[in-house]
Amino acid sequence: MLAVDRPGTAARIATHLADEMISLESIVQRHPGPRPHGGDDPRSAARPVPVILITYATTEDAVRRALARVEAEKVIEGKPQLISIEKT
Q1: What is the pLDDT of residue 31?
Q2: What string of pLDDT tens digits covers the 88 residues of the chain?
Q3: From edge to edge, which strands make up the β-sheet containing 49-55?
Q4: How far apart are CA 48 and CA 88, in angstroms?
Q5: Phi and psi, residue 49, nearest 5°
Q6: CA distances for 24 relative to 38, 65, 85, angstroms
Q7: Helix (H/G/I), strand (E/B), else coil: 19
Q8: For residues 60 and 45, what is the distance between their CA atoms, to the nearest angstrom?
Q9: Burial (Cβ within 10 Å: 0-12, 13-18, ≥19) of residue 10
Q10: What are the backbone angles phi and psi of residue 9, rounded to the nearest 5°?
Q11: Mind giving me the DSSP string for 63-79?
Q12: Residue pair 70/16 in contact by the 8 Å Cβ criterion
């Protein structure tokens, strides 16, 4: 997903996952470079940053419900991509 780079964004995403009993195994955030206006002020405009979330075993329905609430909060841009990994 492309997350808005502001304080509290990760907490909001994690809260929605926790509400669905989804536990995070790892989070990867890649910063695209310097802020467009040159400062580190968290209130300044910033481009969204790619965030990859890997969860422990859960249901696809739970993930979709959590992501729908994340989208409604406007803490991400665009539609998040969901890749299911099934263990045999």
Answers
A1: 72
A2: 999 888 899 999 999 999 999 999 999 987 766 655 555 555 555 678 899 999 999 999 999 999 999 999 999 999 999 998 887 7
A3: 24-29, 49-55, 2-3, 76-77
A4: 35
A5: -115, 145
A6: 32, 16, 14
A7: helix
A8: 33
A9: middle
A10: -60, -50
A11: HHHHHHHHHHTT-EESP
A12: yes
Q: Quick one: tokens of 23?
A: 């536990």
Q: Which amino acid is residue 71, in one-letter code?
A: E
Contact 2, 77 (CB under 8 A): yes
Assigned token pair, 6: 């502001």
Q: What is the pLDDT of residue 39?
A: 52
Q: How many Cβ atoms are within 10 Å of 75's Cβ, its own excluded?
A: 19
Q: Are 15 and 44 in contact (CB under 8 A)?
A: no
Query: Over the Cα atoms of the chain, what is R_g?
Result: 14
Amino acid at site 88: T
Q: Which residue has the tokens 């969901």?
A: 82
- Overall size of the chain counted in residues: 88
The one-letter code for the residue type at 16 is H
